[in-house]
Amino acid sequence: MKIAAIIPARAGSVGIPNKNLRLIQGRPMIDYAIDHALNSHYIQEVYLSSDSAAMNIIAKQRQIHFIERPKSLCQNDTTLDAVIAHALAYTQAEIIVTMQPTSPTLTVQSLDGAIEKMLNEDWDTMISVVNDPHLAWQKTDVGKLVPAYEKRLNRQYLPAWYKETGAFLITKRKYITQDSRLGPKVGVYALSSQEALDIDTFADLQLARLMMHDPKVAFYVNGNHQRGLGHIYRALELADEMNSKPDIYYDTLQTSPDIFGSTTHHLIGVHGLSDLYEHIQKTHYDLWINDILDTSIDYMLGLRALMPQTKIINFEDDGEGILAADLVINALYENSRLAHVRTGPAYYLAPKLFLLYQPITIAPEVKSILIAFGGADPQNYTDQLLELIQDPTYQKYQFTVVLGRAKQHVKQLLTKQSDHLRIVYDVENMPELMSQADLAFTSRGRTAYELAMLGVPTVSIAQNAREEAHRFISNENGFYYLGFQPSQHLLKNTLDFMLASTPEERQAWHSKLIQHPLRQGRQHLMHLINELTMEESYANTLSHR
């Protein structure tokens, strides 16, 4: 039984001029319908019906049949039934598949599934639909609005409501006339909401471009007491920027799943690199993101061997593995001689909640002090400051101490609360706490950037030798930097100095802190990532031709 596809594509689209030629992922929209037809296991002939010279050229390039459509069948009120009936003169096929060029998100699997269903179940006509139940209202003959449902239920409990998508209509030849393509027995083939997109407006076109640029993304990230949790937080923030759920891998030998909190992202625990490599072999990724500090060249070459076409981005990486990455983002470092390494605060990924808060107003005197050394605080600076502020001298101030998920001895530390000391654990709204502070003490990492966004005068202390290299968090940029492992004596003197600071001094620190482009970092970062994935996606699209 011969099956032919007919793709109707007239030139005079009114809503979107040249609609069928609009580029999606670097290809004319109609090219996707042609691909679907050519790649089908069942379709033996492909015809393009049009009055457009450009469509004739495309048909020749794709080596499919072109049907010159008469002007009488190119009017705004011309039905598809008449167009397809006209095309029957060019083929002897017994089954005709009408394929709209405005459904580029359709898959060949669904197209073939519909043809199989029609053949196996002996339908006369098979129509593409999407199950789209909603609470709806309709007008009666007298103009009264009445509910088009029996019970008000949540959407997932409503009865099926099939809406035609226009992607395809498959029918037996004998039922095609100038006025109809429907046989007596009509079946439907349900598509996913993504495949059901029919481009009729510019909004549809924008959505199609977004949906077609949907790279398969994976993260490899680890965090713990020694490494800190900034990598985890950044991975989750970045995962929220993706158009679909990425796979987030973590090493169970280094990272507890509890560290990720209550996220609903797709977490995959692996047992070492060999297990990670085994997982990678089973899935194709367009983009791989490492957030594990320094990478070795062996690890990166291992990734390259398994994913030669995949784009790889490394965060906070100063190891030899950066030579094998496509892009490296080191927001905490300054300057690099490598063109693919981007450094500095312009690439800092600010948490979403912080973008909702404005910088603080400097108060006449210091009353509230925040102590927040990140998710882990491996040097126990929190403990040292807690010991200091037990002194009655500090009881006139209000201290707020934040303990992170990876902080040790949390229960013991929580018992130290008093009238002038509030201790909180795993805070959900950190910018709110920071906005209430006149001063802050923190590490030389992510939290310092957050405080800088709000302009909170901040004392910063490095947790390790690596943090000592975070040059942005320095006196010249508005921080008060104490180095690594300051003595208890230096901590006390610094605390006293900051508490006694004048409004003018704190205003000067504040002004320096808020001048940095930290709020624009997310935009800069996503621009780089999208550029990289667009290159990969476009290359993959062309390779499928």
Identify the quaternary structure here: single chain
CATH class of the largest domain: Alpha Beta
The strands making up the biggest β-sheet line up spatially as 5-4-1-6-10-7-11
The biggest sheet amounts to: 7 strands, mixed
In terms of DSSP E residues, the strand content is 15-25%
Percent range of helical residues: 25-40%
Helical/strand content category: alpha/beta
CATH fold name of the largest domain? Spore Coat Polysaccharide Biosynthesis Protein SpsA, Chain A
Global morphology: elongated
What would CATH call the homologous superfamily of the largest domain? Spore Coat Polysaccharide Biosynthesis Protein SpsA, Chain A
Protein name: Cytidyltransferase
Pfam family, one: CTP_transf_3
Organism: Candidatus Fimiplasma intestinipullorum
GO molecular function: N-acylneuraminate cytidylyltransferase activity
Describe the structure.
There is one protein chain. The protein has 545 residues and is an alpha/beta fold. The chain has 15 helices and 24 strands. The protein folds into three domains: 3-134 and 157-212, Spore Coat Polysaccharide Biosynthesis Protein SpsA, Chain A; 217-347 and 523-543, Rossmann fold (3-Layer(aba) Sandwich); 357-514, Glycogen Phosphorylase B (Rossmann fold), CATH 3.40.50. The chain has helices at 29-39, 53-62, 80-87, 108-121, 202-212, 230-239, 272-282, 297-306, 381-388, 410-414, 430-435, 446-454, 488-499, 503-514, 521-543; strands at residues 3-8, 23-24, 27-28, 45-50, 65-68, 95-99, 125-131, 137-139, 145-147, 162-172, 186-191, 217-221, 247-251, 266-270, 287-291, 311-315, 327-330, 341-343, 368-372, 398-403, 421-425, 439-443, 458-462, 480-484. Helix 7 packs parallel to helix 8 (297-306). The longest helix has 23 residues, at 521-543. This is Cytidyltransferase. It comes from Candidatus Fimiplasma intestinipullorum.
